[in-house]
Amino acid sequence: MRTITGSCRCAQVQITVRGEPKRIGICHCTDCRQESGSAFTFFGVWPAAKFEHLGETAGFRGRQFCPTCGSRLFSADDGEAEIKLGILAEAPTKLTPTYELWIKRRERWLRPVEGAEQYQEDRK
Ligand SMILES: [Zn+2]
Ligand SMILES: [Zn+2]
User: Fold this and answer.
1) Residue 37 region, left (φ>0) first, then alpha (ψ -120 to 50), else beta?
2) What's 3-118's CATH class?
3) Residue 52 alpha carbon to ligand 2 centre in Å
4) Residues, CB within 5 angstroms of ligand 1 (ion)
5) Which of the listed residues 79, 91, 116, 117 has the most CB atoms within 10 Å of its CB?
6) Ligand 1 centre and the CA of 97: distance in Å?
7) Torsion angle in degrees (nearest 10) through CA of 20, 88, 103, 108
8) What is the pLDDT along the chain (124 residues), one digit of tens a residue?
9) Where are the domains of the chain?
């Protein structure tokens, strides 16, 4: 089974996911823009049972980040874990977005990802 690893910028927090993601997304919403300080977030969703992390995190409204370096890391509940893919060790990743959210807030210089489902707001 494929194992993918990642960490925050200071390496205090390490993450591992196993197997294939359920879906891969890009989101242009206000929360994601503010959280990342960038134009969008890039994330993958795995079953929660396939996700592990080591190291102390801090959270705001369910979104976990490193309290030392501030890297944005993941959100997880009993069912699913959503991992920010910018923290993966290998880049480029072999992961391509399957859907795109809040495209009405997408920067005009960004093009839709070819083949990805497009949603004006959240996924229905
Ligand atoms: Zn860190
Ligand atoms: Zn968002």
Assistant:
1) left
2) alpha beta
3) 23
4) 8, 10, 12, 66, 68-69
5) 116
6) 26
7) -140
8) 799 999 999 999 999 999 999 999 999 999 999 999 999 999 999 999 999 999 999 999 999 999 999 999 999 999 999 999 999 999 999 999 999 999 999 999 999 999 999 999 999 7
9) 3-118
